[in-house]
Design brief:
The complex is a heterodimer. Chain A is α+β, with helices and mostly antiparallel strands. Chain A has 24 helices and 17 strands. Helix content of chain A is 27%, strand content 18%. The longest helix of chain A has 16 residues. By secondary structure, chain B is α+β, with helices and mostly antiparallel strands. In chain B, helix 8 runs antiparallel to helix 9. The radius of gyration of chain B is 26 Å and the shape is globular. Classes of the chains: A alpha+beta, B alpha+beta. The interface between A and B is large, with 76 and 82 residues.
Chain lengths: 599, 600
């Protein structure tokens, strides 16, 4: 009996999901593709038909003729001007996306161009400049094509098996959720009986869609969820096999504390990252950081506004989301670029953040900017991330062997071209993120990027003459936010956090001196600092980051930080009187006055 | 020409007088010797010398004819030997040592058999205890020599159902490659002999002969560097075994790279990294004593290394030269001039190194250093503050596989043991599962299956504290956090990631052990690397908030009498007293060498 009822429910549900055109179709597609589900309520097949998005010849009932110029993925940036981005549809958005860093990769190309020898030609270039060309201009571009070029919006989706195949596809890269059963198959569409289940499209982008790409390099997509790419042991063994905690590419992960936004509210990437931040503001940015428009302050020190055309946009986006209750004039949050954080609202005197996935409301803790730890003099330049990032993936030593006697796939053309890259590391760490200074003069978590290049020629012989090394510094939000901040001493007393590298720091007379733990020279690296450091006290400061942004702390800054650290061992409270006028406290200390702490 | 007997007697007398060299070894077949490497015309040895013409002398104390060491007594009178088969390559090998070395060195051999280098009792009894195979780790029950019971040899037909039934197999095949009864692995840095010669006859890293005997194949690995005893024994020879992440390697600043092929770095001229001791190594801060040219044997004298005639259950129990013996210490203790190498000269002391025979000024314990004025620190091992880094290898997963699936270990074949690597490389190249066989390093028999292992993660930065058997605060390291698996011939995981239970059922078989990191820095670490440090207090990294991070929270040591910090000790570290603040204040005012910051 129960099963009969269930069956009836199933049948009804299935029938309801079928969209059978009420009027006879004008499109020949329906001749074969009889029934299909809607991609989403905004693009009902009934209203749009197939041709509007998929092009092709809608007037033919013959497969071959009908499929001429058919577009399987309308989101592909090559055709988007005639599909999603056609006039009267999403024209403005499509153009913005083409200019965004996920489509241009200008940030990666500029970083390579600025740091790699002989690669300056690719600075200011973007993916579209490289797509049609077959011969890489220089090593930097060659490296990009083979090692980086598989993660951008121009990449065709479904071209390879596994995670790689899920990447790319223009608009669809993000807006088409990868159904779990599709992951790893690369297939886009599944035929269930007669009904074609059309891939759904959504503005409620699941985080998996982001993490399929954002799981290497800075690895923020992993860190946010509390995953740290391990050293690859595949432990503990499970069922006689290596660990099931796997990432793509025979990698494994360890579990560390997830970002508080994930842990407490299970927020997705899009709950913070706005449409403008992700799809761009139309400007071709040379750095990801200048495209992103969300800041911690946008939610935690918000400026709430109601009026204006922007608020209309907030309402429109809310309506598109379909899960967050409609906004009847409540003030919403704003980003630094003036776009609405429509899921942050002020309602009945409370600050509510709605989770975009399901519209679940979360009442925000009131901001505690008036608390002593946030008003501590001397910390004006310190970013939220500097103190509130619990850990950060740090990959030390990137050893690139380039073999000209072998071939490797060029992601941009799909062709095999001469020269194969092999990447190895020295070691990985997660604890004690280092700090540096990022423009505009903000103290921020940084991690060094240390390329040691070696070359083997067409005969496979080593070419020591072509060796080089590139030392640079990257600043990024680790996405490991924790409510509790790092201990004062972790920054004010740890040489690694200061950028000097770990070791024993001691004072000889009045000069701080470091006995480094990592022996770079002994380990075969031509480096004057320990591998987990990127600057040194005194002469020859600023070992890394030729571009100057981010930069390591300078001598004066390091001394100031350490001076405060000396006191912080005993003066553990933020509101301790000695910090009110620290320079004066310091001179009192040095002057040997009768100090209260000695009584 | 003197008879063999009289030669031996004379040599023995000289040996007893000198009392330094004691064992005999040779690798290059039956040979004659010439003092100081000078080749002499010895009629009795002409047969050997006709080929081994330029073989060097073993040394003045072993200035014997070839047959004394390399032929069994019954074979010595034979007029002619058919080939080399009757020749004993290594007379000090445990199979032969009683025949050849014993007549002169009975006392030494007896001591070595009882000492930890002979019994390996520490590793055996602690591991067996942690895997639930015996009730206590100490006093020791099993050992490879001496009065201890021989390590049981598991029945090869038995189907293991718990870790306790696997532990002896694991020890025999994976751990005990480093003991003097058998030769170890082969590979750069690993070549060595067995028996007395394991220490006393040095090898080159590549295991190739560098002497003057023209009959020895110089292209073939597995020969000692020269046909000589070397005294004092150079560090390289200790590192033939004391490598990987074990004490000894740290003295030279070595820390093993992670296993995955992603860590074969930096890229050398061959396209891959330079390997020694089975893998590539990070070079970290070298112990200050090594930096000054001191050898292992400068501190670890004969009684430390060979034994003192007593049976010990673990390393820390063996009496050794202490730091304060040379440097002085609390309560005005001065260096002890009776320690070999310590030279008193007025108010200053000097130390004469055994290797380079150089005299160094001995830096003395400075009572004016604020930390040295704190009497509570008398209970703190010097190394707890002066160690710069330590071996923290977290989460050891071990698996015995009687069936190896291809691709499973792809990229993880290198595990620091060339023998295991060879097996795993073989299976990675195949398309079919393989039923491997590897050698029991004690009985030298081939047995089905192979042991692989992997860590969760390895660090050198953390230095948690514990209390050693003498009640002194020491740095502790994981030894180990075992997770045991067994896959049978059918591919069935009969043991699936089992955490063993200790033999007395007190807790799981994970242990941290107090030890002395040999990574001494002249400057101590900062006060805050212990005081105020949650990881030093044993709370782990980020308070051990995930199962992976929880590995950094120490588990109690295996050896009775050693322990972790008590709750009160932990609280005192984390909430320093007013007196601590005052002392720190004084330290900061001090214009001399002052530790800053936080290295822990």
């Amino acid at each position: 009996m129960l099963s009969l009822v269930l069956l009836a429910i199933l049948v009804v549900a299935k029938e309801r999901s079928r969209k059978i055109p009420a009027v006879p179709p004008r499109e020949g597609c329906i001749f074969c593709h009889e029934e299909t589900t809607d991609p989403d309520p905004s693009h009902p097949v009934e209203a749009f038909g197939c041709h509007t998005c998929h092009l092709g010849n809608a007037y033919s009932n013959e497969k071959e003729r009908a499929h001429v110029a058919l577009v399987k993925n309308p989101g592909d940036l090559r055709v988007v001007g005639q599909t999603c981005g056609k006039p009267l549809c999403h024209a403005g958005v499509a153009d913005r996306v083409k200019n965004s860093v996920m489509a241009t990769n200008r940030g990666i190309l500029a970083a390579l161009g600025n740091h790699w020898p002989g690669a300056s030609g690719i600075s200011g270039k973007e993916i579209t400049d490289l797509l049609g060309r077959w011969e890489p201009h220089g090593l930097g571009e060659d490296y990009f094509r083979k090692m980086c070029g598989g993660c951008h919006l121009w990449k065709p989706r479904g071209d390879r098996p596994g995670e790689v195949g899920l990447r790319g596809g223009g608009c669809s890269d993000c807006h088409v959720p990868d159904a779990p059963e599709l992951r790893g198959s690369g297939a886009q569409v599944v035929q269930h009986g007669v009904t074609l289940r059309h891939p759904s499209i959504t503005t409620r982008i699941p985080s998996e869609n982001c993490v399929k790409c954002h799981n290497r390099s800075a690895r923020i997509g992993l860190s946010y969820f509390g995953r740290f790419e391990s050293a690859g042991y595949g432990t503990p063994y499970e069922g006689g096999e290596l660990s099931r905690r796997r990432l793509s590419g025979r990698r494994f992960f360890l579990e560390l504390p997830a970002d508080v936004h994930s842990r407490k509210a299970d927020l997705d990437c899009i709950d913070c990252h706005t449409a403008t931040g992700v799809m761009g503001d139309g400007v071709r940015h040379d750095k990801m950081v200048s495209q992103v428009d969300i800041t911690c302050e946008a939610c935690h020190l918000p400026e709430m506004k109601t009026a204006g055309a922007q608020a209309d946009q907030a309402r429109r986006l809310t309506a598109l989301n379909r899960k967050i209750p409609p906004n009847h004039g409540s003030p919403v949050g704003w980003t630094k670029k003036g776009t609405p954080v429509y899921n942050l609202r002020q309602e009945a005197g409370k600050l509510i953040l709605y989770r975009k996935r399901d519209g679940k409301p979360f009442e925000m803790d009131p901001s505690r900017m008036e608390a002593p730890h946030h008003g501590l003099p001397g910390h004006e330049r310190v970013s939220c991330q500097a103190c509130h990032s619990a850990w950060m993936p740090q990959c030390y030593g990137c050893h690139l062997a380039y073999r000209l006697d072998e071939f490797q796939r060029d992601w941009l053309t799909g062709g095999q071209i001469r020269g194969r890259w092999k990447e190895t590391r020295s070691f990985m760490r997660f604890s004690k993120p280092a700090l540096g200074v990022r423009s505009p003069e903000r103290i921020y978590p940084v991690a060094p990027c240390q390329v040691f290049f070696s070359c083997f020629d067409e005969q496979g012989s080593p070419r020591p003459d072509r060796r080089f090394q590139v030392l640079s510094l990257g600043a990024f939000d680790p996405h490991t936010t924790s409510k509790k901040s790092r201990d004062c001493l972790e920054c004010h007393g740890d040489p690694k956090v200061l950028g000097l590298g770990s070791g024993i720091l001691h004072r000889k007379g009045h000069r701080p001196s470091l006995r480094p733990t990592y022996g770079s020279k002994g380990s075969g690296l031509n480096l004057s600092v320990p591998l987990d450091g990127f600057t040194a006290m005194g002469r020859g400061n600023r070992v890394a980051s030729a571009a100057g942004d981010p930069r390591p702390f300078d001598d004066a800054e390091i001394r100031r930080i350490l001076d405060a650290g000396a006191c912080a061992g005993c003066h553990r409270r933020y509101d301790d009187p000695i910090y009110r006028d620290f320079p004066r406290s310091k001179s009192r200390f040095a002057g040997g006055e009768d100090l209260p702490c000695l009584r | 020409m003197p008879s063999i007997g009289s030669t031996m007697k004379r040599a023995c007398a000289r040996q007893n007088r000198l009392g330094a060299l004691w064992a005999v070894f040779a690798v290059c077949f039956f040979m004659a010797t010439g003092a100081g490497g000078e080749v002499r015309d010895a009629r009795m040895d002409r047969r050997c010398l006709s080929c081994h013409a330029r073989i060097e002398s073993m040394g003045p104390d072993h200035d014997f004819e070839c047959g004394v060491c390399h032929l069994q007594p019954a074979h010595r009178s034979l007029s002619w030997l058919d080939g080399h088969r009757k020749v004993v390559r290594n007379p000090s090998d445990p199979r032969w040592v009683r025949t050849f070395c014993m007549p002169c060195h009975e006392q030494e051999i007896g001591i070595v058999e009882k000492g930890l280098h002979g019994t390996v009792a520490g590793i055996i009894n602690q591991t067996r205890y942690l895997w639930g195979a015996q009730e206590k780790a100490s006093p020791p029950r099993y050992g490879l020599s001496g009065p201890l019971a021989p390590l049981p040899e598991p029945d090869p037909m038995a189907y293991p159902e718990n870790p306790a039934q696997l532990v002896d197999d694991f020890l025999r095949r994976r751990c005990l490659r480093c003991h003097i009864h058998t030769e170890g692995s082969t590979g750069d840095g690993l070549y060595r002999a067995s028996g007395c010669a394991a220490c006393h006859v040095p090898y080159e890293d590549d295991g190739r002969y560098r002497g003057s005997d023209t009959a020895v194949d110089r292209e073939k690995a597995g020969y000692p560097a020269r046909h000589v005893f070397r005294s004092p024994i150079p560090n390289d020879q200790c590192l033939r075994c004391h490598n990987q992440n074990h004490v000894g390697a740290d003295y030279m600043g070595l820390f093993q790279h992670d296993f995955s092929e992603r860590y074969r770095s930096p890229v050398g001229a061959s396209g891959t990294s330079k390997r020694i001791y089975g893998l590539d190594y990070h070079h970290l801060a070298v112990d200050i004593h090594a930096e000054r040219g001191l050898w292992c044997v400068d501190c670890h004298r004969k009684a430390d290394v060979m034994g003192d005639g007593k049976v010990y259950g673990y390393q820390m129990a063996v009496p050794k030269t202490s730091c304060s013996g040379c440097h002085g210490g609390f309560r005005g203790a001065r260096p002890d001039p009776s320690i070999p190498g310590v030279v008193a000269g007025g108010s200053e002391f000097r130390f004469r190194t055994r290797g380079a025979k150089r005299l160094h000024r001995l830096p003395l314990f400075d009572a004016d250093v604020v930390a040295h004025g704190v009497m509570e620190h008398e209970r703190v091992r010097c190394s707890a503050c002066h160690a710069q880094w330590s071996f923290q290898d977290y989460g050891l997963s071990v698996i015995r596989e009687d069936r190896l699936d291809p691709l499973k270990w792809l990229g993880l074949e290198a595990q620091g043991d060339p023998v295991v690597e060879k097996v795993l490389l073989e299976v990675s190249r195949m398309r079919q599962p393989l039923q491997p066989a590897t050698r029991d390093r004690v009985s030298w028999t081939l047995k089905k299956g192979a042991w692989s292992l992997g860590w969760r993660y390895r660090r050198w930065e953390l230095m948690p504290l514990g209390v050693d058997h003498e009640g002194r605060f020491s740095i502790v390291r994981p030894l180990y956090q075992f997770i045991v698996s067994y896959v049978d011939e059918a591919g069935y995981a009969a043991l699936d990631g089992i955490i063993p239970i200790r033999g007395d059922f007190t807790s799981k078989g994970w242990a941290f052990s107090p030890y002395v990191p040999h990574t001494v820095s002249p400057a101590g670490r900062s006060c805050m690397s212990c005081h105020l440090s949650r990881s030093a207090a044993g709370l782990g990294w980020m308070d051990g908030t995930t199962p992976d991070l929880d590995l950094t929270r120490p588990a109690p040591p295996a050896v009775p009498g050693m322990r972790l910090l008590s709750g009160r000790e932990r609280q005192r570290l984390l909430n320093p007293s007013k007196r601590w603040r005052k002392l720190r204040f004084r330290a900061l005012r001090n214009t001399r060498d002052v530790p800053m910051g936080d290295a822990g």
